[in-house]
Write a structure and sequence with these properties.
Helix content: 25-40%
Strand order of the largest sheet: 3-4-5-6-9-10-11-12-13-14
Strand content: 15-25%
Number of strands: 14
Structural class: alpha/beta
Radius of gyration: 21 Å
Number of helices: 11
Distance between the termini: 28 Å
Bound molecules: S-adenosyl-L-homocysteine
Length: about 350
């Protein structure tokens, strides 16, 4: 987008500064902000309470991020929708809408691709292309809300990418998403999931937001975690758990541990025992996820009896635990697979 300003990534203060610098009254900023984040228009022409001259000026200096819906798959079982969006530079990303009794939840991507290299994950197979801008994270939610004509109440940053590897843009996204002048989603209804980048987790804790932190743990000890997650080379499992404790101390928010059960790898009785010891005494919640096998790797799901036994063991040790309900089974494929298929088909 040449040198134009990404106007949807500006907060109200920045937008006000920009608008005043360009010779308009400060109150115009609030109007523009509303057009962008409440009414969610995609062109300056639609901002009908601004003068034509001012709209033309904005058009010259700025652009409005406008994701294009390239494809959508709708589950016949539970109404889950998986979206493929095309970005201005030709890259594609995935987002998912999940419909629950308590409201609509959107899972967004934070990067195009990922460089974390988790062994079971499809999103990382081709590496990282780039981080998403705040406006590109927001627009996934805006476009899905428009598509279904309903309010989105919950957002999880659990799609493709490592949010802590795109930290400044993530913070800006959170600010815009939860701004009372914008979509005004409560911080409590936002979850950010990380593979465990310790310094960023601590930095996020220091901001004392009311968002939920989810840690992708997936193993009960350092050695096993290393086999599944290269990031463990950089941050030892105990350092990561300490950062979670710190997060709770600073924010009072219960941390979620995600644990994808991989048949014969991390699902034994001993794993459950070790995991219980590792997180003993923490105010936390464990989410067990049957691993979603990808064709590039040989990992298989634990069987139902093993999953139930694992859950029981944790519960006996006093740990809050749920098994994640698989949504959109019929459309799914693991995270990142829709995008991967799309890219492969374009190349082929
Ligand atoms: N990078 C962040 C967020 C994106 S991944 C993170 O690591 O948390 C979202 C979650 O899906 C993570 O817990 C990740 O480990 C998990 N995941 C990725 N691929 C999976 C698969 N094939 N089966 C089960 N869980 C998977």
């Amino acid at each position: 987008m040449d040198n134009k300003i990404d106007i949807k990534s500006l907060n109200l203060e920045e937008l006000t500064g920009f608008i005043v610098k360009n010779g308009e009254k400060a109150f115009r900023a609030k109007q523009v902000y509303q057009w962008l984040h409440v009414k969610q228009v995609d062109t300056f022409d639609e901002m009908t309470n601004l003068s034509k001259a001012f709209r033309e000026k904005l058009e010259q200096l700025c652009y409005i991020t406008d994701l294009h819906q390239e494809a959508v798959q709708i589950s016949k079982i539970d109404g889950t929708r998986k979206y493929l969006f095309l970005l201005e530079d030709g890259n594609v990303i995935e987002s998912v809408l999940m419909r629950y009794k308590h409201g609509n939840s959107v899972c967004i991507s934070s990067q195009v691709g990922c460089r974390m290299g988790c062994r079971f994950c499809a999103s990382t197979l081709d590496g990282l292309v780039r981080g998403l801008k705040p406006s590109e994270m927001l627009d996934q939610i805006y476009k899905i809300g428009k598509d279904i004509g309903e309010r989105i109440s919950n957002v999880v940053v659990m799609g493709t990418g490592e949010p802590m590897d795109n930290f400044d843009n993530l913070l800006k996204f959170i600010e815009l998403l939860t701004d009372e002048n914008g979509l005004n989603i409560s911080q409590r209804n936002l979850t950010v999931s990380t593979c465990g980048i310790v310094p960023r987790m601590r930095e996020l804790a220091d901001r004392q937001l009311a968002i939920t932190l989810a840690l992708s743990l997936h193993a009960s000890n350092q050695q096993k975690r290393l086999e599944l997650m290269p990031v463990a080379n950089k941050y030892d499992i105990h350092e990561v758990i300490d950062a979670c404790r710190y997060y709770f101390e600073k924010t009072g928010r219960r941390v979620t541990f995600e644990y994808s059960l991989v048949g014969g790898v991390n699902d034994t009785d001993e794993d459950a025992r070790e995991l219980s010891r590792l997180i003993h005494g923490m105010n936390c919640h464990v989410n067990l996820i049957p691993v979603n096998p990808i064709k590039e790797r040989n990992y298989v799901q634990s069987n139902a009896a093993v999953i139930a036994a694992f859950k029981n063991k944790l519960e006996k040790n006093g740990i809050n635990v749920t098994i994640r309900r698989e949504m959109g089974r019929d459309i799914d494929g693991a995270c990142g697979q829709l995008r991967k298929r799309y890219i492969t088909s374009k190349e082929g």
